[in-house]
Design brief:
Solute carrier organic anion transporter family member; elongated; about 60% helix; mainly alpha; two-stranded antiparallel sheet; Growth Hormone, Chain: A
């Protein structure tokens, strides 16, 4: 008897260690894939400036990840469940690494980044050639040479980022559906929410690392090491600044490849967690079932596909959950993808600061919310119907709280000739820019080049020349321009490079916005695990992998791909001044109407999320009258575990054994 107990204990330790090894490996895979994803989202503004492309095109590049994902998601979700899932996940991680490496290639194939500027640092022009000179000649006139324009636009270089993102999406395909279904198949039903909570925590740790990496990279100049940064006339807060976006992609590529290694050493199947003690019987039954499944698969591996799809499409709770997810994903894809740009334009922060603040204020609360949500599900043995109510009402509470962000906005930056007059009076936007005024009419300044300066009067100007400045002192970012005729102040009027700061009140609004976003992130993530369990338990166990895949497919097609594109078009519509290339073509947007930008950034997600509560309430109504497949599966597992417990107690005295048997029979009847 002692040898049997030792054999069972050894078997339990071996099986549990393999499941936990897979849990650790899949959590690391989630860290690596979300690290790459969050880094990509954080680099959208840098890519926009590097390639001088509009936000709508950047949105398409961002959505290309979903295109690569949907190309394979259905097939991987269905066939992957019948093949070696850990190995498929490992291959996916390697492919993701290849995609990240491809995204970094344009930096090594292009010339150095050149930003538009009226200030010369090369020494070819005289020190006063970019300032206000009466009867002078306009510098930086556009060239009409097509070859020069093509060279500057670098029209095909952003395609490398696009293709790399598609490949990264293809590699990410097997990680979620196969990883979640593997955990669901071999973990106890009461442990599954906790395990998924750990996995989702990995999906938050990854973005946290990704945002910190992005914050560091955007603070380093793109061509660091090959240019003298002391001569730069722009700072990280400038909308022309481009960080070392390529460096982070190389790190992401290495992390993804390293993450793939453990999956190639994990088994295809494992015993159900908690049933390993029933050593030979369950093992033999499982092996017989696997042989039968292999025989059926040889006869036709795809014959169950259409019946499964029909069953899923006829499941009203599952279909309504997909509708909810599509609406919610449309809202959150837009919010997280453009949050750094919003904070730059609304609160005057640099890309590096914005990305760092997003990571510090939002990701830790989300991480805690996922863990707490999983523990609550396990501790109180929350049923599926209770989980649906928890998810719905917590989301509704967070949604109501979200409307407070509409009061946490700042005014537009005061730029003479664009948002205000040269006298400092706010002007009506979108009527037409009066770039020239009487104070700079005779300066013959370029009117399209964006090279902002901040005056002593608190007003910004598009360039030192348009501010009417005649002399300059210093070099690089520390240049000071003096004798500026457009600055109506007593004494020596001067300007410095960069836009004026938005002031203390705007900084306080940013603090309120970040605190509220942190609270909202915690509440919403607290509801995420209960909500996800509704998805997993409303479909049959044999349909679970395909169901998760179809759910992911729908969110990619109807949210992940179109959302950044149409949102980018709406953001472009609020642009007040476009960058100007040497060939005369428009580049990336330099300044937005922050008021209208906030209406779009905050209002559109609010409308989409509001619509999602209609099918959510309908799900609660349907759950009252339906018995879910997940509930049946859970009951079946408990019954098997009860039988196993009975067999373990056979060695005890007859009276006690009889009493336990009667109790178990009564429980079974109940």
């Amino acid at each position: 008897m002692g040898e049997t107990e030792k054999r069972i204990e050894t078997h339990r330790i071996r099986c549990l260690s393999k499941l936990k090894m897979f849990l650790l490996a899949i959590t690391c895979a989630y860290v690596s894939k979300t690290l790459s994803g969050s880094y990509m989202n954080s680099m959208l503004t840098q890519i926009e400036r590097q390639f001088n492309i509009p936000t709508s095109l950047v949105g398409f590049i961002n959505g290309s990840f979903e295109i690569g994902n949907l190309l394979l998601i259905i097939f991987v979700s269905y066939f992957g469940n019948k093949l070696h899932r850990p190995i498929m996940i490992g291959v996916g991680c390697v492919v993701m690494g290849l995609g990240c490496f491809l995204q970094s290639l344009p930096h090594f194939l292009m010339n150095r980044y050149e930003y538009e500027s009226t200030v010369s640092v090369s020494g070819n022009l005289s020190s006063n050639s970019f300032l206000c000179m009466e009867n002078g000649t306009e510098i930086l006139r556009p060239t009409h040479d097509p070859s020069e324009c093509t060279k500057e636009v670098k029209s095909l270089m952003w395609v490398y980022v696009l293709v790399g993102n598609i490949i990264r999406g293809m590699g990410e395909t097997p990680i979620m559906p196969l990883g979640i279904s593997y955990i669901e198949d071999f973990a106890k039903s009461e442990n599954s929410p906790l395990y998924i909570g750990f996995i989702e925590t990995g999906a938050i740790i990854g973005p946290l690392i990704g945002l910190l990496l992005a914050s560091f990279c955007t603070g380093v100049y793109v061509d660091v090491g090959s240019v003298n940064t002391d001569e730069l006339t722009i700072s990280p807060t400038d909308t022309r600044w481009v960080g070392a976006w390529w460096f982070g992609y190389l790190i992401c590529a290495g992390v993804n490849v390293l993450t793939a290694i453990p999956f190639f050493f994990l088994p295809k199947t494992l015993p159900k967690e908690g049933l390993e003690d029933n050593a030979d019987v369950i093992k033999n039954n499982k092996e017989e079932k696997q042989r039968d499944e292999v025989k059926k698969q040889k006869g036709g591996i795809t014959k169950d596909f259409l019946p499964f799809m029909k069953s899923l499409s006829c499941n009203p709770i599952y279909m309504l959950f997909i509708l909810i997810s599509v609406l919610q994903f449309n809202a959150f894809v837009n919010m997280f993808s453009f949050m750094p740009k919003y904070m730059e334009q609304q609160y005057g922060k640099s890309s590096s600061e914005a990305i760092f603040l997003i990571g510090v204020y939002n990701l830790p609360p989300i991480c805690i919310g996922y863990i707490v949500g999983g523990l609550i599900m396990k501790k109180f043995k929350i049923t599926v119907k209770q989980a649906a109510h928890i998810a719905c009402w917590l989301s509704l509470f967070e949604y109501i709280l979200y409307f407070s962000t509409f009061f946490m906005t700042c005014d537009n930056s005061s730029v003479a000739g664009i948002t205000t007059s040269y006298e400092g009076i706010p002007k009506d936007l979108y009527v037409g820019n009066n770039i020239l005024a009487s104070c700079n009419m005779d300066c013959n300044c370029p009117t399209k080049t964006w090279d902002p300066v901040c005056g002593d009067n608190g007003l910004s100007y598009m360039s030192a020349c348009l501010a009417g400045c005649e002399t300059s002192v210093g070099t690089g970012i520390n240049m000071v321009f003096q004798n500026c005729s457009c600055i109506q102040t007593s004494g020596n009027s001067s300007v410095v490079l960069g836009l004026c700061d938005k002031g203390h009140d705007c900084s306080m609004m940013l603090q309120y916005f970040l605190i509220l976003s942190g609270i909202s992130s915690f509440i919403y993530s607290l509801a995420a695990i209960p909500g996800y369990m509704v998805l997993l338990r409303c479909i049959k166990s044999e349909e679970k992998s395909l169901g998760v895949g179809v759910h992911t497919f729908c969110t990619r097609v109807f949210a992940g791909i179109p959302a950044p594109i149409y949102f980018g078009v709406l953001v472009d519509s609020t642009c007040l001044h476009w960058g100007n290339l040497k060939c005369g073509k428009p580049g990336a947007c330099r300044i937005y109407d922050s008021t209208n930008f906030s209406y779009i950034y905050l209002g559109l997600p609010a409308a989409l999320r509001g619509l999602s509560f209609l099918p959510a309430f309908l799900v609660l109504i349907l759950l009252r009258k339906r018995q879910l497949p997940g509930e049946n599966a859970s009951s079946g597992t408990e019954l098997v575990q009860t039988k196993v417990t009975e067999k373990e107690n056979e060695g005890k005295d007859l009276h006690q054994n009889s009493k336990f048997s009667n109790d178990n029979e009564l429980k079974t009847k109940l």
